[in-house]
Write a structure and sequence with these properties.
- It is a single chain.
- The chain is mainly α.
- The chain contains 2 helices and no strands.
- The longest helix is centred in the last third of the chain and has 22 residues.
- It is globular, with a radius of gyration of 14 Å.
């Protein structure tokens, strides 16, 4: 099954804030899946990258690499 890709831009002060945001998103999706009466569950892979304000292509590439690293880790855990 295919999927869509989305980018969330967040102005954060540290890597710790980025990791906390990632964990909060993951937690919220898990809670939705637990509580939902829908016949499906959401799944996703989330990558994190810093934008230097100059090179959008490099930023999106780093984000994509990070997302696929997470996706591969999910596959190994199944």
């Amino acid at each position: 099954m295919g999927g869509d890709e989305f980018v969330i831009f967040a102005k954060l002060k540290s890597d710790e804030e980025a990791l906390a945001l990632k964990k909060q998103i993951e937690y919220n999706v898990r809670q939705f899946n637990i509580k939902s009466k829908e016949p499906f569950h959401f799944s996703f892979s989330l990558g994190i990258a810093k934008f230097n304000g100059k090179n959008t292509d490099a930023f999106l590439s780093a984000m994509d690499d990070s997302m696929y690293e997470t996706k591969n880790m999910h596959r190994l855990m199944q």
